[in-house]
Design goal:
By secondary structure, the chain is α+β, with helices and mostly antiparallel strands. The chain is built from seven helices and eleven strands. Strands 1-9-6-11-4-3-2 form a seven-stranded antiparallel sheet. Strands 5-10-7-8 form a four-stranded antiparallel sheet, with no helix packed on it. Helix 1 packs across helix 4, helix 5 packs across helix 6 and helix 6 packs across helix 7.
Length: 293
Amino acid sequence: MNAPRAIDFDSAHALPVFDDAARLQFSEFYPETPHVLKHGLASHPLLELGSLASLAERIPESSIEYNRGDLPVGIDGKPGSTGLSIGETIRAIHRANSWAVLKNIEQDERYRGLLLSLLDEIRPQIEAKTGAMLRPQGFIFISSPNAVTPYHFDPEHNILLQITGSKIMTQFPAGDPQFAPDEVHETYHSGGARELSWNDELMQGACECPIGPGEAVFVPVMAPHFVKVGPESSISLSITWRSDWSFAEADARGFNRILRKAGFRPARPGRWPAGNHPKAYAYRALRKVGLVG
């Protein structure tokens, strides 16, 4: 899959966003080790509050999630709203006490160009390790000062670029049931929630990654994490992709759920570079004939 050229970049963004040193560092740690790297996208017209509010008002409601920002690290269920519209929330994010995410920004042509041009810069490093870069997606987070994104995991390979403000992303080892039980993984891959239960003892395994403008943090597939925003409002761009490995891991989790429901205690999928194809193929075969959703 060849990425198109970026759309609406001005001359200030003619140089690569990830320089040689950043790409070398990424190549060293991808795909399993969290790390902070530099980027050159500290400002961009598409990432200003007015542009983001306009984007939020024209994309489908299903592509928007926003709620209160003054949350604990661990929550049960989805948090409540503030009563503001998404446009009002973004335009007044410095005082809205909110957290918002605009999902799948690639559905807008201008933002798709931005996303694909960024991913194209690191495509060689990605594909050398995990093969073809699949299903590129982008997410933009707009957060009030001191907002918290509670403890959860995500199914994509992810680089979070900090644009304005600061954050501390606290990550935990991916694939370790101490931090995300196997049963929660299996339920998620069958349509369940991605939020995780929290207790303070988990901090013994934490990797804290503070980032500010011009810095980014890499998040491995399914690595549990939570995020705390600093004393100023924040804008972050998350560029994500999938790989054959990530899809095999997900389908192996789905097959394990079937085994567990049948009374077995299945071994959890291996982490990269271990393959999970036997269980993945079995699950896909069951899905193909309509025995699983």
